[in-house]
Structures are given as structure tokens and as C-alpha cells.
Amino acid sequence: MSLTSIIRQECLVCKKIAVESSRIKIGKTTIIRLACGHLLHFANLSSDDESYESIISSDGFKPRQYQIDAIKFAENCNVRCIIADEQGLGKTIQALSLLRLHPEKLLPCVIVAPTTVKLQWMREIHRWCGNGREFLTQVIQSGKEKAAPGFKIYIVTYDLLKKEDMFTLVEGQIKTIIIDECQRVKNHLSDRAKAVQRVGKITPHIVAMSGTPIKNHAGEYFTVLNLVSPTQFPHHQRYIDHYCDAYSNGWGQKIGGLKNPEMFHEDTKDIIIRRTKADVLKDLPPLERKFYHVELDRNLNKAYAAALDELDELLYSDGNEFERSNATIAIMSKLRHITGISKVAECIEYVTEFLLSCDRKIVVFAHHIDVAQLLESQLNTWCKDGGLEPTCMMHSGLDGNARFALIEKFKSSNSRIMIASTLAAGEGINLQFCSDAIILERQWNPANEEQAEGRFHRFGQENNVSITYMIASGTIDEYFTELVEIKRSIVASTLDNKTIEWNQNSLMKDLAQMLLTKDRKRWKM
Questions:
Q1: Residue 86 carries which DSSP code?
Q2: Residue span of the structural domain in which 372 resides
Q3: What backbone torsions phi and psi does residue 517 show, to the nearest 5 degrees?
Q4: Within this chain, do residues 250 and 340 fall inside the same structural domain, yes or no?
Q5: 73 and 169 share a domain?
Q6: 420 bridge partner residues
């Protein structure tokens, strides 16, 4: 593959790179004036009110009005847009409704999705588009398969899309590409991004979707913006210089948030639609975060204090800054692991009391494998003694089919506990039938925790959602929580027109300093 696959459109008249200077809409036509002085124009799609009313799922649901609004938005930009709605608002429904309304314009279609949600997409296609030949779907399972002629929808993973001859047999036929969890192509130089760009470059219609398109810095938006609107965003460096701020993380300059959020949102209002639950689901039950403080297990005091001494010695030693940074993160990860093991006993007590006090289900999110296994073993013993079904265990080793089956089992069986990897459960699963969860081990990136929370707080939830963060007092847990709760809003602020005040690198640096200065005497051996 080439060094970069940035998409650049040519002016049809002078053949220069098409750089947009302005755009207007006249009726169903969008007219773009280019920097070279020539014009581009394209006709937008539209539907009548009866067509929107005709969209009904196989189980009798209709899109909500805000979802219809997103469908109209996509039609009004010729289905080249970014749907950045908050998790749980039904981006899949909106994308599939477009295919259902305009099969002659938008099919065949390629859906690029994470491995874990292939089955979920297949199910939703059947639910919203039906099982007829008009929406015949091929799920490409391995690199040995190719897209076969005759199908209308192809579901493929990001990694399988890297196979350059995947769509040789249907070359020139693909009309739409839907990019699910589009933050996965944040690096425009990655092979994954180049694979998506290779297909997107020759595809008339593109829908990129993600509730959290930006996780680390505003520069990550460029790949998707370039895919959707190459005339607005033809140059990476120009985008960085014009829209992005920079910050010092102590080791050098990094791309930060948006330099001028108001300008960015104004410039992208025709291609990005973003709504939050607070905006459109006024009747959605609230989500409540609770912080449940426990003491560190005395048996682990020495191990914790020893790791803290390692950190003390490291931060005040001479040496390579890069190596010191990596070593610092490793020691802080060790401290987090110790607190995770420490909290297992308290978590088990909390969960068993919960199960005895009500008839609801509960999910416990863990990070380390041994912590999850310890929870599973002890909770299963308690369940067996109490005549309950064993816990369900979701880990990163399960493929998409297995995860889907596990969620269905947890939903329909008498099992009332699921233990899940926070990262494995962060996308592609629906847990709105459950309203209680415990975050046992914190994530360095709070966006990953918000993704896990979003699995519960979504359309179909009927109860107040309660997320309990279990915190080991006076440890890395408490200090990290203090920092995160002050600066949690990085992703939402970038997308929702607020000022960015947080980045992960500075968070880690602040955390290391807090560990060595706040209540340090407690852990002196």
C-alpha cells in the first residue's frame, strides 16, 4: 500500500485538486464552489412522509422522530455524512432505514464493522429490511472468501477489508459504504484506514457512524472527514493547522482539542449530525453514578507500598524520558491491579446483598483476567449454594457470535450475574434489559467506561440506570477517580461544542504526582 491514501477529488474542468470554498443548497441540489473558481453539484435524495411512516421493524417498532430527522439529514447531503449520535440512540436503525428507503440508489452496500458486531448487524438487517432478495446479505467470514455477485449487502470486518481483492467480483457495483465505529480508522496512515479509503474512494455514498469518534485528540477526526467530504478536507496538515490546538504533555507537542469548536461545528454542520440522549430522549430514565468506597485488603498493603516506592524512585531518577514514561505507566498499572484483586471480596459481598434484596440482574466490569476469574469462581460457589444459575462470563477471547449468544443467554435465562471485560463489552452489545452494574477496575481512558455505561442507558431501558464505581480509599483508585470526575468530559466536550480540558497523557502525569504527594505517609513501609 502507498504511504498515505488520503482521498483527493479533482475539479472536472481544470483537473486541479478540488478544494471547497463554499456550498449552497437550492431545492434538492447542492452546489459547491471550488477554490479554482469552478463548480460541482450533486442531487440530494428525499422521501415523502408516507415513506417514513412505512418503516416498521419485523417486531413492530417504528423509528422515533429524532431518527427520522437523521435520515432526512443524510438524504439532504446525498448520503455522505457522519452520524455521531451518542451511544444508544439507534444509529444502526437510521443507516438501515436509508437502505430500505433508497435501495435503487444505495445498494449494493458494504458494511464495515468490528468483528464482535457482525451478527448484530445481520440480525438488524433482517429486523428492519426483511429477509427478501432485495436485501440479500453476505457475511464475509474469512480472508478466503470474496464478495459474491448477486448480494445486496456485504458485511465485512476492518481486518478482512485489508485483502485487496475482496471485492474484485463486484468491482464498480458498490454504491454505499457504512463504516461502523469509525473511530477505528483514526490514523490515516494505518493499513486499516487505507483499506477503508480504497473502497470509499470509488463509492458514491458514505455513512460513518460512532458515538465517540474522538477518543484522544481532534486530529483523529481527519480520516473520516476526508472520506465523507474530500473537497472540504483534502489536506491533513491544513486540517491540523486550521482546526486543531496543540498541547505539551511534558515530552513534546501533541495534537489536542479543537482550536475553535464553534467554527468547526459551523463548517461541518452539513455533514455531521450529533445528538445526545439528553437532547432527544427526554423520557429516558436517568443514569446515576455511585462511588462505593472500600478499604484496601491489609494482606496487600506491603505489595502496594512497595510498588509506590518503585514509582517514587523512578520519577526522581535520571534517565531516558520515554523509558521513564513507559515504566511509570507499568507501575501505575501494577497498583491498579493490586487494588482490583483487593476489591474482589467486597464486590462479592456487594453483589450477593444486591441479589438478595431484589430480583434484578447485575453486570460486573473488570479489567484483569485473574480478577474476573476470581470473581467468577467465588460467585459461582455462592450461586450453587443458593440454587441460582452460574454467572455468565464475557471476555475478549469470545468472537462476535459467542458474545451475542452470551447476551441472549443472560437476558433470557435465570442467570442474574454477568462478569464482563470493560473493553470487550464496550461496543456492539445491548444491555438495556439490565439497569445495574459495577465498575470494579477503572480504565485509563474514561471514554471506555462511558461506552460500557452506554450499553445500559439506551432506547428500551425502562428503569433508572445505576452504575457503581467501587473505589479503594487512599489508593490510586481514589486519586484517579478524583481526576476523572473533574475532567471526564473530554469526548463530549469535543463533540458537543464545549471546551476541552483533559487529555490522557496529562491525566497520567497528574496521577503519578498525586500518588507521591497526597497521603504519601500512609504507605511508607
A1: P
A2: 287-523
A3: -120, -30
A4: no
A5: yes
A6: 365, 394
Instruction: Record the pTM.
Output: 0.72
Q: How confident is the model at residue 255 (pLDDT cuts 50, 70, 90)?
A: confident
For residues 309 and 253, membership in a common domain is answered with no
d(CA 334, CA 410): 32
Residue 324 backbone dihedrals phi, psi, to 5 degrees: -65, -40
Phi, psi of 87 (to 5 degrees): -55, 140
Alpha-carbon torsion, ordered 447, 157, 234, 21, to 10 deg:
-80
Contacting residues for 336 by C-beta, under 8 A, at least 6 apart: 367, 441, 442, 476, 477, 480
Give the pLDDT confidence score for residue 2 in this predicted structure: 52
**Cα gap 213→207, rounded to integer Å:** 13
Q: Domain total for the chain?
A: 2
* pLDDT of the residue at 499: 38
Instruction: Mark whether 274 and 294 lie in a shared domain.
Output: no
CA dihedral 453, 454, 456, 459 (to 10 degrees): 160
Cell of 264: 468547526
CB-neighbour burial class of residue 43 (10 A; exposed 0-12, middle 13-18, buried 19+): exposed
484 touches 511 (CB < 8 A): no
Confidence at residue 4, expressed as pLDDT on a 0 to 100 scale: 64
Cα 210 to Cα 84, 239, 319, 417: the distances in Å are 5, 20, 41, 29
Among 247, 280, 313, which residue terminates a domain? 280
C-beta contacts of 135-140 below 8 A and 24+ residues apart: 135/99, 135/100, 135/103, 135/107, 140/166
Q: Cell 439528553: give the residue.
A: 278
487 confidence band (pLDDT: 50, 70, 90): low
C-alpha cell at 392: 455468565
Alpha-carbon distance of 337 to 335, in angstroms, equals 5
The answer for residues whose C-beta is within 8 angstroms of residue 507's C-beta and 6 or more apart is: 444, 483, 484, 487
* More confident of the two residues 376 and 388: 376
Buried b or exposed e, range 238-267, using 16+ CB within 10 angstroms: ebbeebbbeeeeeeeebbbbbeebeebeeb
Residue 151 contacts by C-beta under 8 Å, 6 or more apart in sequence?
A: 108, 136, 137, 138, 170
Distance from C-alpha of 266 to C-alpha of 257, rounded to nearest angstrom: 16
| Residue 320 burial (C-beta neighbours within 10 Å; 0-12, 13-18, 19+) | exposed
Give the whole-angstrom CA distance, residue 307 versus residue 314. Answer: 11
